[in-house]
Write a structure and sequence with these properties.
InterPro entries: DegT/StrS_aminotransferase. By secondary structure, this protein is mostly helical. It has one domain. It is about 85% helix and about 0% strand. It is built from 2 helices and no strands.
Length: about 80
């Protein structure tokens, strides 16, 4: 936290200098925190969806292999 304050103060100083004024003050609306929270939720949701997709994919693979084996045994019986 201490390091962050230094960077904010440094930014304020440089920004004031750029504007040609004595002081400038930085303010945060909290959007970065909100963004990070939303990204965390999105990451969790995508992880859950990926898990479901992988289970579904394994089930599809099993069904495909069973179908291939059934067709192979049918052609052998002919």
């Amino acid at each position: 936290m201490r390091n962050n304050r230094y960077h904010v103060r440094e930014f304020e100083r440089k920004f004031a200098n750029y504007l040609g004024v004595k002081y400038a003050q930085a303010a945060s609306s909290g959007t970065a925190r909100d963004y990070n929270e939303q990204m965390g939720k999105l990451t969790n949701n995508l992880s859950s969806l990926n898990s479901i997709y992988e289970v579904d994919l394994m089930d599809s693979n099993t069904k495909l292999m069973n179908t291939i084996n059934d067709l192979a045994s049918t052609s052998e019986a002919s």
